[in-house]
Amino acid sequence: MTDLTTTGDTFTRAAGTFQRSPLPKSDHHHGFHPAVNVGTAERWASLAAGGGLVLAGLAKRSTGGLLLAAIGGSLVYRGWQGHCYAYESLGISTAERHEATGVPAQSGFKIERTIAINRPRAELFEFWQNLENLPNVMSHIQSVTVQPGDGTQSHWIADGAFGRTVEWDAEIINIREGEVIAWRSLPDSQVDTAGSVHFESLPNDRGTTMRVSMKYNPPAGKLGASIASLFGDGLEQKLDEDLRRLKQHLEAGEIATTDGQPHGPA
Amino acid sequence: MKAICWYGKHDIRVREVPEPTIINPRDAILRVTSTAICGSDLHLFNGYIPTMQRGDILGHEFMGEVVEVGSAVENLQPGDRVVVPFTIACGRCFFCQRQQWSLCDNSNPNAAAAERLYGYSGSGLFGYSHMLGGYAGGQAELVRVPFADVGPIKVPADLSDDQVLFLSDILPTGYMAAENANIEPGDTVAVWGCGPVGQFAIQSAKWFGASRVIAIDRVPERLKMAERHADAETINFAEVDVISELRERTGGRGPDACIDAVGLEAHGSTFDALYDRAKAAMFMATDRLHVLREAIQCCRKGGTVSVPGVYGGMLDKMPFGAAFAKGLKFAMGQTHVHRYMPTLLERIQQNGFDPSFIISHRLKLEDAPGAYEMFNLRESHCTKVVLEA
Description:
- The complex is a heterodimer.
- By secondary structure, chain A is an alpha+beta fold.
- Chain A contains eight helices and seven strands.
- Chain A has helices spanning 9-12, 40-60, 63-81, 85-90, 121-129, 134-137, 227-231, 235-252, and strands at 109-117, 141-146, 153-159, 165-176, 180-185, 192-201, 208-217.
- The longest helix of chain A is centred in the first third of the chain and has 21 residues, at 40-60.
- In chain B, the strands form four sheets. In chain B, strands 3, 5, 6, 9, 10, 17 and 18 form a seven-stranded mixed sheet that branches.
- The longest helix of chain B has 14 residues, at 337-350.
- Chain B is globular and about 60 Å long.
């Protein structure tokens, strides 16, 4: 797979100096500009509110009006530059949480969760050993097909952003009976991903803890691509919910739901 | 089918809705024969419980006849007559296996919402907000019961609906309140609230060996009920100061255990109660905890405060210093109904205990909107409404 189905303008932008500030694009070629510490939506809000205040202040033609306009001007600056001196002095940055991605662009996505499941270790290991079980409980994975051969290679299809799908081939790279299963995508996959699950028995028959670790990197050679552009927003929440469903499936034998139950007309 | 639906504060309607179907293998469908309005339904009626949605089907105290079972339900058959616990529990998680059924890990499809508020989520409940599962309730002609292989208890034909219906919630709730109170022989137990849960807590406290039970309310017929059925002493809080009265009656030591069977909608005329009321009215607080404060204040040193009354949010002006200084123990939570049902059914069946004495009104399902109103205002000596579906 050489190209992406998820092409978008994020992939075509020049990499390097480009700094998560897709809003006002003017400042990246200047020699100096203060670090961006205000989030995108907040910058737009600052621009809008600041502009309004400048106009309203100037219209007043009074000292108070000038003050208002000055405050408005500082908001416009804050919105344009993405830098807030008040935030700086307080050590705050709202730019870290990029609204569109959920994770910083140009970097991977990693989630690690530990979940205690009230079942014996061998049973959990067996469940994971058959990767084709995963789509039953992992909502963002559509299918996993184990390839013919030694059973270590598999083809994954997952839900992508905007109704598209993301596919990759993976191989099991480490397996120790009852302890760990680890996998990673094959080179040249559409997505660079790796994951592992470790199993540990809890004392006094309290079940087993599963430590699930998943990492997604944007496609190699596609600087500027983000995981959100592949999978959409909220991948972390999806994985959290998936693990909850997995636990329900393994413990209760079914996944609790109210979908399809009656309801009075709203 | 007909169902009782929530449409907002003080807005309950009878609606025609689709019939429920089996969704999961461990489901069963019941034709409801009797369902009751719970005091905690009034918290929904009065708009105190968040995450309700227009059209939600209410009701968590119900019983009926099995009409259909899912492929994994082997212990029930169509035609079986059962009472259903209001807490929905899988029976297989860490908590269920420790008999803490109302803390089930696997029955709340909206656990993430409860986790944001509480850290971890309890079990799903029937008809009691989306944060607690969003399950359609049993104030309807038919109801879907999840995990039906571990929840519903079969009841013998010679017991009437009235005799067994309260196994679904309030009888086990009163019983667990007494169990949580760590009662020892010779103890004096004070119970705030003589509604149905209070009545059963008073009775259960006697079963657990309390020498004296002091019942506190302001409704004379409810106090009389506690006297008549459980030989309780009474205090009418509208007439006397509860704190000094309890001190006097216990030789200055205080009750060994205090049970708050009122919860977040406490009434009172003291300053703190008015403060709560004002804050709640301005949406600055959710819970009015006058009773809880009083119970903490009254309880003897080293005693236990047991809380079957429902609380939902952050408690304001909670006298934690008093609780600490006196070394109190606290126990609370939704009822582990599954755990108590067999014991209590046995009490009804073999020991002749008849919980139906609390019923004041028997109405039809479609009378529910008026019944909520009446129960909420405590009109017509209303203590408990049973609806026939």
